[in-house]
Design a protein that fits this description.
By secondary structure, this protein is an alpha/beta fold. It is 32% helix and 18% strand. The chain has seven helices and nine strands. The protein starts with a strand and ends with a strand.
């Protein structure tokens, strides 16, 4: 059982604790079931402490930059490993490298979202993003463009580029240049294909 969390709003956090509490009886009936909590909430220190103390049936907690370790974490627990709290311990929210080529499930056959960067450097007083997603890390332009090309080849018509602040994209080229290259695939992106950007 994998609980994917959000830490942007307090209501979302309360809902996660409520849903996680409801898993206790399910775990009692299925003791071999692995209960995992991931996502932004997992990066908050107080959440990890609360899970350790109040939710002993949660087996694994992992943060946003550890998604690529999911198979490893499952295998470790299946092999009898201890509870694992695998969150970033790097200073000042400086999360690790970006893991490319992880599988993506898309709900639409014509519209796709492509992340070009993660994290934020602004540390606005009202926003938790830099603390749970880390400082800005931009994907390499060749990785972004390769993903866009594969989407266009698969028939996607509406592609949105995502980032907390896409204007600060710094993957070795500027954001306008990334857009120019993304829209310049001859024979790959037809005239009907739209590329847009979204600063979250």
């Amino acid at each position: 059982m994998l609980v994917n969390t959000c830490a942007i709003r307090e209501h979302a956090e309360l809902k996660v604790f409520s849903k996680t509490g409801g898993l206790k009886k399910i775990k009692e009936k299925n003791p071999d079931m692995i209960v995992m909590l991931c996502g932004c909430m997992a990066q908050e220190p107080h959440v990890g402490e609360k899970i350790k103390k109040s939710y002993p049936y949660v087996d694994v907690v992992f943060g946003t930059d550890k998604n690529h370790r999911l198979p490893e974490l499952i295998l470790d627990r299946l092999s009898g490993g201890d509870r694992n709290f695998c969150v970033s311990d790097l200073p000042h929210g400086e999360f690790g490298v970006i893991c490319e080529n992880t599988p993506v499930t898309r709900r639409s056959s014509y519209k796709a979202w492509v992340s070009i960067m993660y994290g934020c450097n602004n540390y606005c007083t009202y926003c938790i993003v830099p603390y749970v997603r880390g400082r800005e890390r931009s994907r390499r332009p060749e990785d972004v463009l390769d993903e866009i090309k594969r989407l266009a080849d698969a028939g996607y018509k509406d592609i949105t580029l995502l980032g907390q602040n896409v204007n600060s994209y710094d993957g070795g080229i500027s954001f306008p240049e990334l857009l120019r290259r993304a829209s310049g695939f001859s024979g790959v992106l037809p005239e009907s294909t739209a590329i847009s950007c979204c600063a979250l």
